[in-house]
Amino acid sequence: MAFHGIVVVAMAKPSIFRAERSLSQDLYADHTIYRSGASTRRRDLVFVVNPRGANGRTGKEWKKLLPYLRSRLGTDCNLLPVRASCGEMIRLFHCGLKVMYLSNTNSLSACKICESLTSGPSHAIDITREAIREGADAVIAVGGDGTLHEVVNGFFWGGKPVSDHDSRGTHTTALGLIPLGTGSDFARTFGWKNDPREAIERIAKGLRSRIDVGVISGESGESHYFINVADIHLSAKAGYYASRYKRFGNLCYVIGALQAFLQHHNQDLKMKVDGGDWEVYSRVTALCIGNAKFFGGGMKITPNADPLNGNFEVVILQDFKWYDFIFKLHKLYNGTHLLVNNVTSRSVRSIEVEEIDGSSGIYVQSDGEYLGFLPRKFCTLSAAIDMIC
Length: 389
Ligand SMILES: Nc1ncnc2c1ncn2[C@@H]1O[C@H](COP(=O)(O)OP(=O)(O)OP(=O)(O)O)[C@@H](O)[C@H]1O
Fold this sequence. Notes:
This protein has 389 residues and is α+β, with helices and mostly antiparallel strands. It folds into two domains: 7-205, Probable inorganic polyphosphate/atp-NAD kinase, domain 1 (Rossmann fold, 3-Layer(aba) Sandwich), CATH 3.40.50.10330; 223-382, Tumour Suppressor Smad4. Helix content is 26%, strand content 32%. The chain contains ten helices and 22 strands. It has helices at residues 25-28, 57-74, 86-94, 123-133, 145-154, 185-189, 196-205, 234-242, 251-262, 322-334, and strands at 7-8, 14-15, 32-36, 45-49, 79-83, 98-99, 112-117, 138-143, 156-157, 160-161, 174-179, 207-217, 223-226, 229-233, 267-273, 278-290, 312-318, 343-348, 350-355, 363-366, 369-373, 376-388. The strands form four sheets. Strands 1, 12, 13, 14, 15, 16, 17, 18, 19, 20, 21 and 22 form a twelve-stranded antiparallel sheet that branches. Strands 2, 4, 6, 7, 8 and 11 form a six-stranded mixed sheet that branches. Adenosine-5'-triphosphate binds next to helix 5. Adenosine-5'-triphosphate (ATP) is lined by residues 50-54, 118-121, 123, 143-147, 150, 181-184, 246, 368-369.
């Protein structure tokens, strides 16, 4: 995929946090950590690792990856030493970050990297917010789409982007990804595989691109963000069930879809696109709002979506029967379903979706995570986050 507007940015000179030793005030009180160049701003890479991702595979892969990460990112460092205050260490500790030293240097003269293992759902959101406030150069999600989704949500608070405590408008924290999940669907749009070494190369090179993010609002007024695909009705219900079967790998999506089908009824929905008039779509099976192209473990559901173009691609499937999925499934995977009867695609900047009778509880998910029920409004936030591409 060709990316326009790629900017080369001097990557944070990283400092590594070793997994074997957790932070304690006593342990670190006498040590030195490093800041990059002449700047007094810390230049940190923060890795947010979901050890339970891909049924525990993420945690195992991450442990195996650490020596390579140290050696690959550590060699790029050219940092000036400064004395770390106790306060700084304690702040890192409070935001769940483990501080570690580069094992391949005795002098502690290399750069610093933070790892934080998530302790449960939503923890990645808090870690990310804290890391951005502390001036991290990049926050890197290590896991699947669910972990990436939480990290993206950590870039915002109270409807606004989170910023560095000391920001004078010049510093931007970038988002990075080491895809190590079950589906890792967002990475597919960029052609990235679940190959952590390749991801570390990207991080070392530090190319950044400003990508769009979707924002979802509901009746509560609270904003929720997504980076990949938000979807409604059958696919959302299938995703809800699939999350219970992640131990079966990509098969979870098939099991989830079968279970969702058992209680499925196509529903009439009304939609308002880009602030226009309400339109009725009859017998909707699923409605997918793509900032990127893939969901459900590799289905190219919104094949024209591009997280760099400022628009969503909305794909609406109407009046599908269970056998349509059997005969048309391959088209959903390769992205040729747009030519099938009863499939509509449109490019939008915002879309509001409501039920007509308002009684059935139509499922909504974003980035494969269950969100709740209709009604919802989905808007693009153009070029909202700097992503390491
Ligand atoms: N320590 C933890 N224990 C249990 N669940 C966690 C923990 N940390 C994060 N989670 C939750 O695990 C969920 C799934 O994680 P993740 O997306 O990384 O893996 P996956 O589901 O295997 O991959 P994919 O979403 O790409 O299919 C996330 O929604 C997150 O809330």
